[in-house]
Amino acid sequence: MWSYQAPVADMLHLMTRVLDAPASWAAQPAFAALDADTAGQVLEEAARFACEVLAPTNAPGDLAGCDWSAEGVRTPPGYAAAYRAFVDGGWPALACAPDAGGQGLPQLLNAALFEMLCAANHAWTMYPGLLHGAYEVIRAHAVPALRERYLARVASGEWLTTMCLTEPQAGSDLGLVRTRADLAGGAEAANGATVTVTGGKIFISGGDHDLTDNIVHLVLCRLADAPGGTKGLSLALVPKWLPDGTRNSVHCDGVEKKMGIKGSATCQMHFERAQGWLVGEPNRGLAAMFLMMNAARLHVAMQGVGHLEAATQNAWRYAAERVQMRAAVRPEGAAPAPADPIAWHPAMRRILHTLQARTDACRLLAYWTALLLDEHEQHPDAKRRAAAGGHVAVLTPVAKALFTDLGHRSADEALQVWGGYGYVHEFGIEQTVRDSRIAMIYEGTNEIQAVDLVQRKLLDDGGARATALIALLAQEVAACRALAGLQPFADALDGQLQAWRDAMAALLAGRDADPDWPLRVADDLLHGIGHALMAWAWARIARATAQPQPSAVAGGRSPAQWLQSARFGIDWLLPQAQVHWARAARRDAVLPWA
Predict the structure, then answer these.
(1) pTM of the full predicted structure?
(2) Which positions are annotated as active-site residues?
(3) Minimal CA–CA distance to 532: which of 586, 495, 567?
(4) Is residue 120 situated within a structural domain?
(5) By residue range, what is the domain housing residue 524?
(6) Are 532 and 575 in contact (CB under 8 A)?
(7) Which element (helix H / strand E) includes 278?
């Protein structure tokens, strides 16, 4: 009753026609040989794995969950076989550098891959979800001996990884981490030094499992003489199995019984003088770990897009098949019938088009962020790299918070299409509602993403990065004004960008007198900016649709369908932005203490 078909044609349309990714790739030596046809082949193969191998494990894995014993964690049936196929297909190494055994393809294609994986089976995708971030940390910060021992195995997916941050008393406040690292044998504190790690971690995704022979834990810890707070954190690499084949003293004490993603082993871990090695400079562990955390945030944003897509395509299919009552107005030429598909009723049409317009906008913004990340890492022009990096810094917290919020809320709204059947496991949407909720919490709650956006990305530099991004977005206003029929898109986007400028200027002028104000309105400011970005996405899609294309993407939606969805976005969804902008401007609004 629930199925997933990867929308490869839609993905390719947004990449190649709307974003013109091939032109960006051509300007980057690392990707100069990549073209739209090759990208399409990669996506088709990824879709085959996601739809044929992974998706069938989703519902059974939700029912089975993970089994814990003192010997280790057993994942649901089919998970291990799917993971072996994933590794055999070379998918973990897709965006890793060739000198580390990777395929050297763009982050954009990797983002599309993980959108498919999350839509097919979010819980399973949690296991390889941290691989690329761990690869980046080891490659950038580990000493040569550790890189030689671990990098290729992590890049290939032969060994899976974890990110061990959270402790019972230290959730979002990592300055409270207590896990201790002791230097072994009187060694000096330095990158690569041998340490023993002691402490407990909670909520560790993939902390133990039966998918790989070894697990590489990246653990935030504190040396004995370290200063307090986040400035005293170090990072240690602690494997489950040591290089000499002996079992390290790191163990899983249990797995959480969760609301969703039940096939993902969320573990309570303890380290009892477990052997490891420092990665990066002592007391600079959080800076090293940020590579992994930023990669994880984009990965979580793709979870939101994946849930949006899965809910959207299943809701549309069910609404077209389910017949109930006569529609007040029927499509021209509809044959007489005692009842009509619910997709013809205005209430359902509004839900369905809301789902589609959100999916289109979020997917385009996600792909644009990944494309900019590629340019930041690979473009030969230093100014272009710096500009792209500034844009990514602003876009990342918005993408993580906005996409996961819309992914969950849209799944919840989509359940209404099924009525009572939506509340039943066999129909699939209730699992998506449960699975999608966690993405708003982990890798920095959405509220923390909003605070990060406002304090660090908008205000701390006087609004410079945001102003540069707004100027880039404003180019779409001029481009739409130059084409007949696109004036509504230009006006909508122009209005949103001005609201963004006004809100930022007010906060910059008023934060010294009321430092709590930016924090009170951070969530609304993030969602206001999110709507401005969606307005840009709908305008960009409309302009690409209005311009003649050399050829159609096979199997894709028609230009009229793309334009219809974009117009629905600015007519029906964009008005919600005014609520967020209005609240962001209410400096006098009281936020009670109790």
Answers:
(1) 0.97
(2) 443
(3) 495
(4) yes
(5) 445-588
(6) no
(7) strand 266-278
